[in-house]
TrEMBL record:
Record's keyword terms, sorted: Kinase, Transferase
Provenance organism: Bifidobacterium pseudolongum subsp. globosum
GO molecular function: kinase activity
Gene3D superfamilies: P-loop containing nucleotide triphosphate hydrolases
UniProt-recorded name of the protein: Adenylate kinase
Keyword Transferase listed: yes
């Protein structure tokens, strides 16, 4: 395990798991949100994002945290392991609620409210985003022998981390 993706619905705990995975493995961690967003809540261009992401992908070792569906095929072409946090919608909504008002290293600002558009994105994730994600993971596992670990509960995250010690 040298090139790892951590993906799943917002609020599932991807960033927390990725940090703990970094601490357990010593692999460098990159947050897609930190690549894409500026502290003033604007974004860099797609072209600049793609260049920065490609530079990371070409490194020998990494953990990349985040979805960014447009770049998932690019990332799957380089990774050897994927942790897919496939949690129930309610768990994800609660996860976002818990982080409101708290500074995290994976975002360049503090969220002070649960944006309604973001809430709708999470509610729609199982039907609108998840099917494409699952299809891409199945394809990567079949064509490139990428190890895909689909986790359905927070307790499974603990088990995965415990297995690395």
């Amino acid at each position: 395990m040298r090139r790892v993706l951590v993906i799943g619905c917002p609020g599932a705990g991807k960033s927390t798991f990725a940090r703990r995975l970094r601490d357990a493995t010593g692999l460098p961690l990159y947050y897609l949100d930190m690549l894409w967003h500026k502290p003033d809540r604007t974004t860099i261009t797609r072209e600049e994002f793609d260049v920065r992401l490609q530079m990371i992908l070409e490194q020998d070792e990494w953990i990349i945290d985040g979805n960014f569906a447009r770049t998932l095929p690019m990332r799957l072409a380089y990774c050897d392991t994927v942790f897919f946090l496939d949690f129930p919608t309610g768990v994800c909504l609660e996860g976002v609620e818990r982080r409101i008002g708290i500074k995290h290293e994976d975002m360049p600002w503090i969220e002070h409210e649960f944006d309604e558009e973001f809430r709708r994105y999470i509610i729609g994730f199982p039907t609108e985003r998840r099917p494409q994600m699952v299809a891409a993971l199945e394809d990567a596992a079949a064509r490139r022998d990428v190890r895909v670990r689909t986790l359905h509960a927070r307790a499974e995250l603990e088990t995965e981390l415990g297995d690395m010690r």
